[in-house]
Amino acid sequence: MYFLTQLYHEFVRMAYPWKKILGLTFMAGIVVSMSLPTEANAGACTELLTDGGLESGAGWVAKSNNNHALFSDSLARTGHQAAYLAGTNNSADKLATLLKVPQGPDSVTVSFWWQIQSQDVKAQGDALAVLVADGKGQIQQKLDELDNRDLADHWQQRTYDLSHFAGQSIQLQFLASTDADQATDFFIDDVEVLACRMNE
Prior knowledge:
By secondary structure, the protein is mainly β. Helices cover 9% and strands 46% of the residues.
């Protein structure tokens, strides 16, 4: 009996450092319960765009001074089509969508995938600007600008914070322009505007 008592005390002594980590509960010399720590929920996000995949063009306004369609199946990251801006000399193309940024989420971000192909690789002459405008179209912030020197033979992603526009109606705009020499193709796909809440 003495041997069994000593064995139990030695077991408890060795297991004690794990008591808080594993949630061990001792009673009458045996482990009667064990609760492992659970991972906190990552939270929930709401997509604010109707057609971020650019499959139908729903919710988007597309304008081109050369009157060509800005949705194309020539190069898509996912699905059947993507936005295809410029592609010819002297282009001025605009793709825009209006959305309401809610108040309350812990974060609001916009992300999109892009790819650029160009004949002009020496000097900047063609550009794609990513802008935030107010509901009337007045520019509030330039999120980024890519140009013909940002050549990429694979899709890349950019992400930006929109939390400071909480409670406002905004336009997300993609503006592409080219000069008169050696055209550039700007491709955009899988646009997301996510409003996320983090669970405690």
